[in-house]
Amino acid sequence: MPDPSLLILIPAYNEERRIEPMLRGYADFFGKNYAGKFQIVVVLNGCTDNTLEVVQNVAAAFPVIRAVEFREPIGKGGALIEGLKLSAHADLIGYVDADGATPPRAFLELVQKIGTADCIIASRWLPGAVIHQSQKSHRQFASRMFHAIVQFFFRMNIHDTQCGAKVMKTAAVEAIHDRLTTADMAFDINLLYSLQHAGFKIVEVPTEWTDIAGSKVMLGRSSLTMFLSVLRVRLIYSRFYKWLRPLRPLEGWVYAKLRAPRPLSASRKKDGGASEQ
Ligand SMILES: Nc1nc2c(ncn2[C@@H]2O[C@H](COP(=O)(O)OP(=O)(O)O)[C@@H](O)[C@H]2O)c(=O)[nH]1
Ligand SMILES: [Mg+2]
User: Fold this and answer.
1) Ligand 1 center–CA 194 separation, angstroms
2) Does a structural domain hold residue 93?
3) Most Cβ neighbours (<10 Å): which of 144, 157, 205, 275?
4) How many domains does the chain have?
Protein backbone atom coordinates (compact mmCIF):
# COMPACT_ATOMS: atom_id res chain seq x y z
CA MET A 1 0.00 0.00 0.00
CA PRO A 2 1.37 3.47 -0.82
CA ASP A 3 2.08 5.90 2.01
CA PRO A 4 -0.81 8.27 2.82
CA SER A 5 -0.90 11.52 0.89
CA LEU A 6 0.75 14.32 2.81
CA LEU A 7 0.57 18.09 2.80
CA ILE A 8 3.34 19.99 4.57
CA LEU A 9 2.60 23.60 5.48
CA ILE A 10 5.44 26.01 6.16
CA PRO A 11 4.47 29.33 7.77
CA ALA A 12 6.97 31.97 6.70
CA TYR A 13 7.50 35.57 7.64
CA ASN A 14 10.59 37.38 6.33
CA GLU A 15 12.49 34.16 5.86
CA GLU A 16 14.63 35.08 2.81
CA ARG A 17 17.78 34.15 4.69
CA ARG A 18 16.65 30.85 6.25
CA ILE A 19 14.05 29.19 4.04
CA GLU A 20 15.91 28.17 0.89
CA PRO A 21 18.12 25.35 2.23
CA MET A 22 15.21 24.10 4.32
CA LEU A 23 12.83 23.98 1.34
CA ARG A 24 15.37 22.28 -0.93
CA GLY A 25 16.18 19.82 1.83
CA TYR A 26 12.53 18.85 2.39
CA ALA A 27 11.61 18.61 -1.29
CA ASP A 28 14.69 16.55 -2.06
CA PHE A 29 14.40 14.27 0.97
CA PHE A 30 10.67 13.58 0.61
CA GLY A 31 11.12 13.13 -3.15
CA LYS A 32 13.59 10.32 -2.44
CA ASN A 33 12.13 8.81 0.71
CA TYR A 34 8.36 9.20 0.63
CA ALA A 35 6.36 6.70 -1.38
CA GLY A 36 3.03 8.56 -1.12
CA LYS A 37 1.93 11.78 -2.79
CA PHE A 38 3.21 14.88 -1.04
CA GLN A 39 3.01 18.62 -1.45
CA ILE A 40 4.69 21.52 0.29
CA VAL A 41 2.77 24.78 0.68
CA VAL A 42 4.58 27.82 2.04
CA VAL A 43 2.11 30.18 3.70
CA LEU A 44 3.49 33.71 3.72
CA ASN A 45 2.00 36.89 4.98
CA GLY A 46 3.03 40.48 5.10
CA CYS A 47 6.66 39.73 4.28
CA THR A 48 8.71 42.86 3.68
CA ASP A 49 11.70 41.00 2.26
CA ASN A 50 12.21 38.68 -0.73
CA THR A 51 10.85 35.48 0.81
CA LEU A 52 8.29 35.09 -1.99
CA GLU A 53 10.92 35.32 -4.76
CA VAL A 54 13.17 32.90 -2.92
CA VAL A 55 10.30 30.40 -2.57
CA GLN A 56 9.30 30.85 -6.22
CA ASN A 57 12.88 30.16 -7.35
CA VAL A 58 13.02 26.93 -5.40
CA ALA A 59 9.50 26.01 -6.59
CA ALA A 60 10.72 26.32 -10.19
CA ALA A 61 13.12 23.45 -9.47
CA PHE A 62 10.68 21.44 -7.33
CA PRO A 63 7.08 21.39 -8.62
CA VAL A 64 5.88 19.86 -5.32
CA ILE A 65 6.38 23.29 -3.73
CA ARG A 66 3.95 26.19 -3.99
CA ALA A 67 3.40 29.45 -2.16
CA VAL A 68 0.20 31.04 -0.88
CA GLU A 69 0.43 34.63 0.23
CA PHE A 70 -1.80 36.72 2.49
CA ARG A 71 -1.17 40.43 2.54
CA GLU A 72 -2.67 41.14 5.96
CA PRO A 73 -0.65 40.62 9.15
CA ILE A 74 -2.42 37.39 10.14
CA GLY A 75 0.50 35.92 12.11
CA LYS A 76 1.87 32.40 12.18
CA GLY A 77 -1.40 31.13 13.65
CA GLY A 78 -3.49 32.98 11.09
CA ALA A 79 -1.34 31.58 8.28
CA LEU A 80 -1.74 28.04 9.61
CA ILE A 81 -5.49 28.44 10.12
CA GLU A 82 -5.73 29.36 6.43
CA GLY A 83 -3.28 26.63 5.40
CA LEU A 84 -5.15 23.93 7.32
CA LYS A 85 -8.19 24.66 5.16
CA LEU A 86 -6.29 22.76 2.46
CA SER A 87 -6.45 19.56 4.51
CA ALA A 88 -8.98 17.97 2.16
CA HIS A 89 -6.16 17.64 -0.37
CA ALA A 90 -4.36 14.99 1.67
CA ASP A 91 -4.78 12.19 4.22
CA LEU A 92 -2.26 13.80 6.55
CA ILE A 93 -1.48 17.46 7.02
CA GLY A 94 1.37 18.85 9.07
CA TYR A 95 3.44 21.92 9.57
CA VAL A 96 7.02 22.80 10.28
CA ASP A 97 9.04 26.01 10.77
CA ALA A 98 10.83 27.61 7.85
CA ASP A 99 14.16 27.85 9.64
CA GLY A 100 15.18 24.21 9.24
CA ALA A 101 15.29 23.50 13.00
CA THR A 102 13.53 20.18 12.31
CA PRO A 103 15.41 18.09 9.72
CA PRO A 104 13.24 16.36 7.09
CA ARG A 105 14.04 12.90 8.46
CA ALA A 106 12.59 13.92 11.86
CA PHE A 107 9.44 15.17 10.14
CA LEU A 108 9.15 11.92 8.18
CA GLU A 109 9.42 10.02 11.45
CA LEU A 110 6.31 11.84 12.69
CA VAL A 111 4.42 10.75 9.59
CA GLN A 112 5.62 7.16 9.98
CA LYS A 113 4.77 6.96 13.67
CA ILE A 114 1.29 8.49 13.61
CA GLY A 115 -0.36 5.05 13.70
CA THR A 116 -3.69 5.19 15.52
CA ALA A 117 -3.09 8.71 16.85
CA ASP A 118 -4.89 11.72 15.35
CA CYS A 119 -2.03 14.11 15.93
CA ILE A 120 1.66 13.50 16.47
CA ILE A 121 4.00 16.18 17.71
CA ALA A 122 7.76 16.48 17.94
CA SER A 123 9.16 17.02 21.42
CA ARG A 124 12.49 18.50 22.41
CA TRP A 125 11.84 17.71 26.07
CA LEU A 126 11.26 13.97 26.06
CA PRO A 127 14.09 11.53 26.87
CA GLY A 128 15.66 10.44 23.60
CA ALA A 129 15.42 13.86 21.92
CA VAL A 130 18.61 14.84 20.05
CA ILE A 131 19.35 18.56 20.34
CA HIS A 132 22.31 19.57 18.17
CA GLN A 133 22.23 23.19 19.30
CA SER A 134 20.10 24.34 22.26
CA GLN A 135 18.12 27.55 22.50
CA LYS A 136 19.86 30.40 24.36
CA SER A 137 19.28 30.07 28.12
CA HIS A 138 16.88 33.05 28.36
CA ARG A 139 14.73 31.52 25.59
CA GLN A 140 14.78 28.15 27.31
CA PHE A 141 13.69 29.83 30.52
CA ALA A 142 10.84 31.67 28.78
CA SER A 143 9.84 28.45 27.08
CA ARG A 144 9.71 26.52 30.39
CA MET A 145 7.73 29.32 32.08
CA PHE A 146 5.26 29.23 29.21
CA HIS A 147 5.04 25.47 29.55
CA ALA A 148 4.25 25.78 33.29
CA ILE A 149 1.47 28.29 32.55
CA VAL A 150 -0.01 26.08 29.84
CA GLN A 151 0.10 23.03 32.08
CA PHE A 152 -1.56 24.98 34.89
CA PHE A 153 -4.40 26.16 32.65
CA PHE A 154 -4.99 23.10 30.49
CA ARG A 155 -3.50 20.00 32.19
CA MET A 156 -2.69 18.53 28.80
CA ASN A 157 0.44 16.75 30.09
CA ILE A 158 2.28 17.56 26.88
CA HIS A 159 5.99 18.26 27.44
CA ASP A 160 6.64 20.44 24.40
CA THR A 161 3.67 22.22 22.86
CA GLN A 162 5.83 24.73 20.97
CA CYS A 163 8.12 22.62 18.81
CA GLY A 164 7.33 23.66 15.24
CA ALA A 165 6.73 20.16 13.81
CA LYS A 166 3.28 18.55 14.00
CA VAL A 167 1.29 16.12 11.82
CA MET A 168 -2.44 15.46 11.93
CA LYS A 169 -5.06 13.32 10.27
CA THR A 170 -7.36 15.29 8.02
CA ALA A 171 -10.54 14.17 9.78
CA ALA A 172 -9.27 15.53 13.11
CA VAL A 173 -8.28 18.89 11.63
CA GLU A 174 -11.62 19.28 9.89
CA ALA A 175 -13.54 18.46 13.06
CA ILE A 176 -11.92 21.22 15.11
CA HIS A 177 -11.02 23.83 12.50
CA ASP A 178 -13.80 26.15 13.64
CA ARG A 179 -12.23 26.32 17.08
CA LEU A 180 -8.96 27.73 15.76
CA THR A 181 -8.87 31.46 16.39
CA THR A 182 -5.39 32.20 17.74
CA ALA A 183 -3.31 34.16 15.25
CA ASP A 184 -0.06 34.51 17.19
CA MET A 185 2.53 31.96 18.35
CA ALA A 186 0.14 30.49 20.95
CA PHE A 187 -1.72 28.92 18.01
CA ASP A 188 -0.28 25.51 18.91
CA ILE A 189 -2.02 25.59 22.30
CA ASN A 190 -5.32 26.42 20.62
CA LEU A 191 -4.83 23.53 18.19
CA LEU A 192 -3.71 20.93 20.74
CA TYR A 193 -6.35 21.79 23.31
CA SER A 194 -9.12 21.79 20.71
CA LEU A 195 -8.02 18.34 19.54
CA GLN A 196 -7.72 16.95 23.05
CA HIS A 197 -11.02 18.49 24.15
CA ALA A 198 -12.76 16.91 21.16
CA GLY A 199 -11.41 13.49 22.19
CA PHE A 200 -8.68 13.12 19.57
CA LYS A 201 -5.51 11.26 20.48
CA ILE A 202 -2.27 13.24 20.56
CA VAL A 203 1.08 11.50 20.86
CA GLU A 204 4.40 13.15 21.52
CA VAL A 205 7.67 11.67 20.29
CA PRO A 206 11.27 12.70 20.98
CA THR A 207 12.71 14.61 18.05
CA GLU A 208 15.92 15.86 16.51
CA TRP A 209 16.29 19.63 16.60
CA THR A 210 18.80 22.44 16.07
CA ASP A 211 18.31 26.00 17.23
CA ILE A 212 18.69 28.29 14.22
CA ALA A 213 19.60 31.94 14.78
CA GLY A 214 17.19 34.62 13.58
CA SER A 215 14.01 33.81 15.56
CA LYS A 216 11.06 36.07 14.79
CA VAL A 217 9.90 35.85 18.38
CA MET A 218 10.74 39.00 20.36
CA LEU A 219 10.66 37.64 23.87
CA GLY A 220 9.05 40.54 25.76
CA ARG A 221 6.10 41.44 23.57
CA SER A 222 5.57 37.94 22.16
CA SER A 223 5.49 36.42 25.66
CA LEU A 224 2.82 38.82 26.78
CA THR A 225 0.78 38.19 23.63
CA MET A 226 1.13 34.44 24.03
CA PHE A 227 0.09 34.63 27.66
CA LEU A 228 -3.00 36.63 26.71
CA SER A 229 -3.86 34.18 23.96
CA VAL A 230 -3.51 31.20 26.26
CA LEU A 231 -5.81 32.88 28.74
CA ARG A 232 -8.22 33.67 25.93
CA VAL A 233 -8.37 30.03 24.76
CA ARG A 234 -8.91 28.93 28.36
CA LEU A 235 -11.81 31.40 28.67
CA ILE A 236 -13.33 30.40 25.35
CA TYR A 237 -13.49 26.84 26.65
CA SER A 238 -14.96 27.93 29.98
CA ARG A 239 -18.57 28.61 30.82
CA PHE A 240 -17.69 32.23 31.63
CA TYR A 241 -16.95 33.20 28.06
CA LYS A 242 -20.49 34.25 27.21
CA TRP A 243 -20.41 36.73 30.10
CA LEU A 244 -17.35 38.40 28.67
CA ARG A 245 -19.07 39.45 25.46
CA PRO A 246 -19.16 43.17 26.40
CA LEU A 247 -15.36 43.11 26.71
CA ARG A 248 -14.76 41.81 23.20
CA PRO A 249 -14.09 45.18 21.55
CA LEU A 250 -11.29 45.57 24.09
CA GLU A 251 -9.69 42.41 22.79
CA GLY A 252 -8.88 43.96 19.41
CA TRP A 253 -7.53 47.08 21.09
CA VAL A 254 -5.18 45.10 23.37
CA TYR A 255 -3.72 43.04 20.49
CA ALA A 256 -3.29 46.19 18.40
CA LYS A 257 -1.42 47.84 21.30
CA LEU A 258 0.87 44.81 21.50
CA ARG A 259 1.32 45.00 17.72
CA ALA A 260 0.27 41.36 17.66
CA PRO A 261 -1.85 39.64 15.01
CA ARG A 262 -5.47 39.96 15.99
CA PRO A 263 -7.32 36.80 17.02
CA LEU A 264 -10.27 35.68 14.95
CA SER A 265 -13.74 35.81 16.41
CA ALA A 266 -14.49 32.72 18.49
CA SER A 267 -17.91 32.39 16.87
CA ARG A 268 -16.88 32.44 13.23
CA LYS A 269 -13.98 33.63 11.18
CA LYS A 270 -13.74 35.46 7.92
CA ASP A 271 -11.67 34.22 4.99
CA GLY A 272 -8.17 35.63 4.86
CA GLY A 273 -8.12 36.43 1.14
CA ALA A 274 -5.24 34.35 -0.17
CA SER A 275 -3.50 34.85 -3.42
CA GLU A 276 -1.96 31.83 -5.09
CA GLN A 277 1.66 32.51 -6.12
N1 LIG B 1 3.08 33.30 7.95
C2 LIG B 1 3.71 33.71 9.05
N3 LIG B 1 4.69 32.98 9.58
C4 LIG B 1 5.31 33.43 10.69
C5 LIG B 1 4.96 34.67 11.32
N6 LIG B 1 5.77 34.83 12.40
C7 LIG B 1 6.59 33.75 12.43
N8 LIG B 1 6.33 32.92 11.41
C9 LIG B 1 6.97 31.65 11.08
O10 LIG B 1 6.82 30.78 12.18
C11 LIG B 1 7.95 29.91 12.25
C12 LIG B 1 8.55 29.96 13.64
O13 LIG B 1 9.20 31.18 13.82
P14 LIG B 1 10.64 31.31 14.43
O15 LIG B 1 11.08 32.71 14.26
O16 LIG B 1 11.54 30.25 13.89
O17 LIG B 1 10.31 31.05 15.95
P18 LIG B 1 11.06 30.25 17.07
O19 LIG B 1 12.10 29.40 16.43
O20 LIG B 1 9.95 29.49 17.72
O21 LIG B 1 11.65 31.29 17.97
C22 LIG B 1 8.90 30.36 11.16
O23 LIG B 1 8.70 29.53 10.04
C24 LIG B 1 8.45 31.79 10.88
O25 LIG B 1 8.75 32.25 9.58
C26 LIG B 1 3.91 35.43 10.73
O27 LIG B 1 3.55 36.50 11.19
N28 LIG B 1 3.33 34.91 9.61
MG1 LIG C 1 12.76 28.84 14.88
Assistant:
1) 21
2) yes
3) 205
4) 1
pLDDT digits (tens, 9 = 90+) for 47-72: 999 999 999 999 999 999 999 999 99
Residue in 8, 9, 13 to alter for ligand 1 test, most ligand atoms within 8 A of Cβ: 13
| pLDDT (0 to 100) of residue 156 | 98
Q: How far is the CA of 80 from the centre of ligand 1 (A)?
A: 11
**Which ligand has the minimum distance to the alpha carbon of residue 96?**
1
Would you say residue 241 lies in a domain? Answer: no
CA distance 189 to 192: 5
Q: Is the dihedral angle over the CA atoms 141, 106, 191, 18 positive or is it negative?
A: positive
Q: Which residues of 19-38 are buried (b: 16+ CB within 10 A; e: fewer)?
A: bbebbeebbeebeeebeeeb
In a domain, 249, yes or no: no
Please report whether residue 27 resides in a domain: yes
- This prediction has a pTM of 0.95
Distance 1 CA to ligand 1 centre (A): 35
Give the domain CATH number at 27.
3.90.550.10
Query: Within 6 Å (CB) of ligand 1, which residues are found?
Result: 11-13, 15, 43-45, 75-76, 79, 97-99, 164, 215-217
C-alpha span between 111 and 187 (Å, rounded): 21
